[in-house]
Amino acid sequence: MASRSCTFVEILLAVILPPLGVFLRYGCCSMEFLICLLLTILGYIPGIIYAVYVLVAHGSASEESGRDYDALG
């Protein structure tokens, strides 16, 4: 249940500021973050679309690997 609430917060932040939601999941030097940052600079809507896609589509892959935010709480 905690991973769903973390995903919800990440998506909410991705709608407000797209690179921030991706940064929380992947870090600042990942390819996903850099693509999201570039798309957000070029246009706000493409940045939102990419950020939500990355968080939702790749979210199930990262949950399968066992990575979650329980250690931070």
Summarize the structure.
This protein has 73 residues and is mostly helical.
Ends apart, CA distance between termini: 13 Å
Shape: globular
Uncertain regions: pLDDT < 50 for 5+ in a row? none
The topology string of helices and strands comes to HHHHH
Q: Measured on Cα atoms, how large is the radius of gyration?
A: 12 Å
Major sheet details = none
What structural class should be given to the helix and strand makeup? mainly alpha
Total beta strand runs: 0
Number of helices: 5
Residues in β-strands, percent? under 5%
What is the average per-residue confidence, as pLDDT, rounded to a whole number?
A: 81
Portion in helices:
over 70%
Secondary structure topology:
Layout: H1 2-16, H2 18-26, H3 31-42, H4 44-57, H5 59-64
Helix pairs in contact: 1-2, 1-4, 2-3, 2-4, 3-4
List keywords for this structure.
single chain; 73 residues; mainly alpha; 0% strand
What does this entry look like structurally?
With 73 residues, the protein is mainly alpha-helical. The chain has a domain at 28-59. Helix content is 77%, strand content 0%. The protein has five helices and no strands. Helix 1 (2-16) packs antiparallel against helix 2, helix 2 packs antiparallel against helix 3 (31-42) and helix 2 runs parallel beside helix 4. The longest helix has 15 residues, at 2-16. The radius of gyration is 12 Å and the shape is globular. The model has no long low-confidence stretch (mean pLDDT 81).
